Structures are given as C-alpha cells and as structure tokens.
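Crash report, auto-generated. Payload:
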Amino acid sequence: MGALRRVHWGPHLVLMLGVLVFVFPVYMALIGSTHDVGTIARGDMPLRPGPHAVENYRQAWASGRGERVNAAPVSRMMTNTLIMALVIATGKITISIISAFAVAFFRFPLRMFFFWMIFVTLMLPVEVRIIPTYAVVSDLGMINTYAGLIIPLIASATATLIFRQFFLTVPDELVEAAKIDGAGPMRFFWSILLPISRTTIAALFVILFIYGWNQYLWPLLITTSRSMETIVIGITKMIGTGDAQTDWQIIMATALLAMLPPVLVIVTMQRWFVKGLVETEK
Amino acid sequence: MRHRGTAVLLAVLLAFVTLAAGPGLVPSRAQGRAQIEFWHGLTRPLGDLLEKIAADFNASQGTYQVNATFKGTYPQTMVAAIAAFRSGNAPHIVQMFEVGTATMMSAKGAVKPVYQLFKEAGVPFDASIYLPGVRSYYSSADGKLVGMPFNSSTPVLWWNKDAFRKAGLDPNKAPATWEEVRAAAQRIRAANAAPCGLTTAWPTWTQFETFSSMHDVPFATKANGFEGLDTELMINSPLHVRHLQFLMDMQKEGTFKYGGRDSAGDALFPSGECAIITASSALRARVLREAKFEFGMGYFPVYGDVVKGTPKNSVIGGAAFWVMTSPRRTAQEYKGVAEFFRYISTPEVMAKWHIDTGYVPITHTAVTLAQASGYYTQNPGTDIPIKQLTRSRPTKNSSGLRLGNMPEIRVVIQEEMERAFQGQQTAKQALDSTVRRGNEVLRRFQRENTGQ
Amino acid sequence: MQRRVVFDNRVLPYLLLAPQLAVTLVFFFWPAGQAVYQSVMRQDPFGLSARFVWFENFAEVLRDPFYLSSVRLTVVFSAAVIFFAMSSGLGLALMADRQIRGGALYKTLLMWPYAVAPAVAAALWFFIFHPAIGIVGRGLNNAGVRWDFVLNGSQAMLLVILASAWKQVSYNFIFFLAGLQSIPRSVLEASAVDGAAGGHQFWRIIFPLLSPTTFFLLVVNVIYAFFETFGVIHSLTGGGPGKATETLIFKVYSDGVLNLHLGSSAAQSVVLLLVVILLTAVQFRYAEQRVHY
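Recovered output after restart:
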C-alpha cells in the first residue's frame, strides 16, 4: 500500500481537471436552468446559479399542460422514454450476449462471416438508409407501434463486439472444468459465464440505456402520435432554428430533468463496477 | 444466480413477444371522422400554436379530424414525407420551407396543387385574398396557386435606439439607405455605443434574395426560375459585386460583423452586441423578450442612387402547406384538407396567428382586421413588414424565387461569402465562383427532374 | 481470434446467432441493399423519375475536388478526435481506479456527460464558445485572442474536434474503467511486490491486460469519429466557414438529407463504408498479433 499512498495528490489533480473540463458544459446547463432567458441570450450568464430555478423547473415539468394544449407533458415523455430505454437496453444485451457466446465459444462454418455481417451494420449510418428502412417497417405494418420503434434498434454490433472481446479472455481452465463436469454449453453460460461478465454487462447497460434514452431520429420518423414522443424529441422541439424564440432556460431545465434517470442508472450500475464483486478472484 | 438469470431472460423474452404481437399505439381517433395527417416542422412555441389551430378546426366541425404532428426540422420533415410517400402512406398535408418550393412543385404526381384540390373538392376559394408577393411565390408561372401559404415573414432593419442615442444619432430615424447604415455604424463604433455596428442574419435571404427583389434586379434568369428549369444565376452582376464589396469594406473598417449562417446572426442583436441588424420580422418575439434596450423596426435598406422612388416589395420567407397524394386517399379526405385550408385562411385565424407569432398576415382581410384591432397603433413598427411586402406590384424580379436545390445554393453563397470575408478572395471572385457552382447545382436539379 | 477450447455443438451456435442475424437481415441488410442500389441511380427525391446510371455517381464524387479536400479534413479530424478521446478516457480511468477518497464521486461525475442528449450538448458548446455571447468565447476575446469560429476555419475545426472528443470521453472512460476493474487485484499486488511501480506497472502489466478493451474502443472510436460526429458539426459549424469543417460524413448527410441528392449521397456512403471496413479489417489483423487474450 505504501507505493500507492505516495502519489495521492496526482490522481486528485488529474481527476479534478477532468471533472472541470468534462463536466463544465453540464454545469453550465445547470446554471442556465436557473436564470431567465434574457440573461442567457445576452451572454451575461455568470458562473453562479440564478434566482429562477423554481419557476423554470416548474415550467419545464408542467410544459404540456396549460393553454399550450397539444404538447405531451414531461412526465408522459419520461415514462415513454423509460420503457423504451429499458426494453432496448435489456433486449440488446440479451441478443448480443448470446451471439457473442456463439461466436467465441464454438467453431462452425461461416462463423467469422456472420460476425462481420453483424459488425458491418455500424458502418452505414442510419441517415443514409432511413428511407428504405422506413419502407420495410411500413410494409411490415409496424409504423407507429412499439415494435417498430424498438426492434430495428435492437441489434447492436457494439455490444456483440465487446462481449466477444471479453469472452475471448475467459481462461480455458474454466471451460475445461465445465466440460469435465459434464456441463453443456448453456449450463456453462448460465452458471459461469454470466456471473463473470458482470462488469461488462453493467457498463453496457449504462451505455445502451442512455442510447435508447436519447433516441431521436428514429422515433421521430416512425411515430405519428404524441403519446410516443421521447424526451429528447421534446427537448429538440424546443430548440428553434430560425423564426422561433428559444427558451434556453427551459431547455436546460428539461435536459437536466431528462438526465435524472440515466444518472440514476449510472449511479446504480456503479456498484457493479466495484472490484469486490468480481468472482474470478483466485 | 442461475435462477435469477433465467428469470431475467424469460421476463425479457416475454416482454418482447407481448410488445411485438401487441396492438400498435394508435391513438384513440374520434369515431367516424375522416382522419387527415398533417406533418409540420415548427418547434415550440410556434408549433404548439399551429397545433392549437388544428385542434380548433377539429372542434368546429364533426366530419374531419386533422392530426398535427411535429416531424423535426424542415429538412427532416421533408425526408419523413419522402419516406412516407415512397411507402405509400404520405401524410395529407406537409409543411415545407420556402426554399423547398421548387422541389415540391417538381414532384408532379406526389403533390396535388392547391387550386386543383379546391376545384375537385368543390370548395370555393379565391386566391386573390393573398398579398401579391405571397401569392406569386407559391403559384405556378400561369398564376395558379400550387402551395398553400401560411407562415411567412420578411426581412426588415432592426436598430438599437439606445445605442443610436449614445452615438449622437437620431434614435427615431431608421437608416433608409446602405450609405446611411454605414454612416450610422461608423458613428456607433467611433462612440463605442455598441461593440459592433451592423450585422445580418440569414445572409443569403437578406443580402441577396431580398436585395435583388427590392432593387428590381434579377437573381436568376427565366424570371428567377419561374419560367423554366434551365435557369441560371445572375448574382454576380455589378450591383451584387458592389454590395458584397460594400460589406467587405465595412468589415475591414470594423463596422460590420459576419454573424454566421442562417439564423446564427440573430443572437447578436437582442444581446446588444450589434446595434443594427437586417433580420426576419419574426425576430420580434425574441427581441421583446431578451433585449434590454429600446429598439425599432424599419424598412430594409437600399442603395439611394440605384433605387429612384419607392423600392420594390421584399420577398417572403417561412413555409407553406403542401398536399400530398397517396393511393389510399379518398375524395372525402381531400375535401377535408380543402375545408381545413379554407378555415386557416379566414381573417380571424390569420390575424390571430400574425399577432401571436410575428409572422406576417398574408391576406388582405387579415391585415385589415389586425389594423382594426389597434395592434399596429399599440405596437409601432409592426406594420413595416406588411407595408414592405405590399408597396409595389411584384415584378418578375420581386415575385420570389423558383430555384431547385435552393438550400444547397444558399450554402454555396454562404461558403463563398465566408471565404471573401476571410480575405481569401475578392468580391468578384466570390460571386463568379458562386454563380459557377450554383449553376452546377441547378443543372443537377434539372437532370434529376426531367429524367435526363 | 479463436479460443483454443470450445464446445462441440453444431446446431446450437446457429440458434444463438439467429435473433441478431434475423433483425440484422431484415432491418439492416435489406434496406442497406436498397440504399446502395440508390447509388447507381439518378432520381428525384420522390422517386417519380429514376434512371440507372451505372457508376456515374461514383465518378462524379471521386472527381469532385471538394470531396478530396474533405477526405483530408476527415483524416485530420478523426485522428485528433480518436487521440484525444481515448487518451483522456484512459488517463481518467486510471486515476479513478485507484483507491482514493471521493473515487466514487469522481467516477459518477465523469460518466454524466454521456447522459446529456446530443442536441443539448451541441447547443451547450455553442453557448459556451460563441465569440459574442459565450462565456469562454468572450473570455478569449477579452484576453486578446481573436476567437471567432464563425469566420476562422482552423478555430472552427478545433472546436468541432474538442466537442466531438468531449462527447466520447465518457464512453471510453466507462469501458476503460470496467476493463481496469476486471483486472484481478492479485495480479496488481503481485507486480507491486515484485517492485513494479507507477509507469512500469502500467506499461508491462496493466496495458497488455487492458488490450482487449483498448482494441474494442479503438474500433468503436474510429466508427464514432467517421460516422457519429455528424451531429456536432451540424449544430456548431454547419460544415463552415467555407467548408473548413466539412467531413465526409457531413457531406453524406448534407447531400442526402438537406439537398436530397439520394444517388450521390448513397455513392459517398458506399465509399465511406468500404474505407471503414478496410480500416477495421486492418485493425483486426493487427490485433491478432498484439492483443493479449
């Protein structure tokens, strides 16, 4: 422990610098949500919070009620988005982990071909194929349905890639031990592989949840009813591009409200990152 | 752990199956009404106001229901409409920005012209209720209304009265010519009444499109593209070069600041940074909310030596509504669209929209109604946009533009301007380059739309 | 690239792969095929008049001088973004991994930026760095630096590089941290006992053990830099001033969605797709020798 104690100040400095640089914009959003729009637009926003926090947050939360009759309330959008994000994250992890398991722990014809097939999906951006993808979804009758919203998003190449990477590092002894015990592959999967994949699953859950949470382009295209709006659509709706005035303080307040569930997920999942729970301690 | 894992997996799979097989989230539509899908690209709060108009229409009758949905910015709404059209479920109405007009008009077969809609539906409609400049923008060359005008704005001059006062200028007199604008900006900078003198938003819309219109010079051949797809740009004329050089000179002497593309320059006026700006009339709501100074709205400036007498009218910006076809459309649905269009063009709806949003009232009757309500007397300067739009009969140069791929041409203009402002080329080089590149864009549009 | 010890089943792997393959085939390959087909067509946006033009679109694209300068820009941009994003992510993860007070707080705070919606993040950067109304933008100008990314191409490039890297650091941080956390304590302690300190321990022990994660992140970061940075550029500079920040992906989007040149955009995507596949294949090949499993 002696070696570690000596450099205590180093990490703190680096970390604080990191927090400063990387969290600064988030901090500015927090500050921005407590001022009135004039102050922000004039560029007079100071580094300290302002007096308008309560009214801004109240307006952000209640937006949708009142005389602006036709907007979805924030609470509704958050619920929607929560369901979507949860299903997307768990769905992606489930599908990817079994695919990666297949690719890493078996030998079969076309193995790497299938892997590349999955992998190549990352390299053609969605904007380019959005019109034909819409056509496919439409032909399947899935426009404006949860299925149409979620299923096209559910095949994740990144999750498959990272699981595969991780599975390749699993010591051979574990597999051999399982075979010797007469355990089949699925038994090995449940009892041995899943537990040691914990940190990876946790990290991926955070990433995929937030990915699902921040979905904008696809839900926008696929849904035509306000009840399906995601929170990010709600926020982007407020960012005007031209003739409209932009309520920056409300946008930032809403954005911070929208960040709460992901942050909650981050904080909860952090426990799973802690070393002590990892069971491959020898 | 084993049992927990299985349980989780089962739960997920169950959720999957339920969702995939379950009913779609089609919202409860009113029973028996013909459904009309209306996609728009207006963000809040304007989008909310638009959706309220649709809701009011729904409440006023029991036969049709208009469902207004926000589909993203105008380009995204366009892509959504295209994707939907290609899949056979285009929305009934789609809102498209003015620079997409040529694209919509060329999509014969995908778009149903408005005059045809009204005729077939048997709904009486008189296009002459619209202000001439508005009507001409969205009509074909033979004067038939193709798109349904709705939210239009026009550029005006905004000035910071407090800064003028501080610089020893008459705060109540708007500079009317470019020479006066420059002189004012110089005084402001000399007295340091504001960090910057003049700036502009929407540089192409203001300094080129509106500029050409008001000076009665062509932006492009073939009546600005109305008369044919084989049009070519003409914005490298001596007058245009003179104007770009003018701005470049002002920038060099520190009286003009390039504010950025599209609406980026808007931010510089209400913040007090720049004392004079040429921007949309619709900036008003923002200025009211954010500016901490007295301000005025004036006519868009012209060159005193070029324009004798009254300048021509300015051009509009904003968006219009377009009717899309679909194999599944029924005649009744089209009738519903026609009825909705008739509703939104009534003076009460138009006047209220104008007052609520700062968009221009585009029908004569709406203008009269707004006048009668005392709005203009209570808010001096708010009638400038209207006056500017109606001060002359539109000529071939001031009826608007009908150029394909206009958004792309705008980017070209902005790119060349930026190079010029950075000192990388002269005004003439910039505009010659613009015309060359812009013509390539126009030829491409021509090829794509005539199957050549 | 292949484990030494595997299971013998023949049918099971196909079953396991089936869900992902099914979704990928239906919702990616089928539409992607159509999108690629668009690259050999010339048509109006609504598809009302379409013509088969062989490789004209490709020829046009590759001949375009703007395209070539965009290639150069993209290389510079991507290299910078990947470098900043990965080194910062790794550095921060290393610091946060140690047993220090407030470690959990640091970790949480550093993960937050990832949760900010992309549109909002871009807007925030705009607000902070705008020369006239941004807190840092004004600060720079007041300090004598002529900061104006609206007219200065290199500054615009710097801004989009920083904004793009910023967004990715949290992502890299999360995975580097997870990777570090899964290195058994016993290994670290053993090496410490052996006298390995600080840098030595890092390069000889930690980095190699981290290499699967590093490899994965490198691949992901390349894809991020080439494809997902579009949003940042769109919100901050729109490709300007004067095309100074027009990367290849921005061109793809702007030609396809903004200008509705579906054929050209599809052709550009195909080229980009091939380039990235090549890059990734090279990375995989390289990894075979270097990455320790």
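Post-recovery validation: The first helix of chain A runs from residue 2 to 6.
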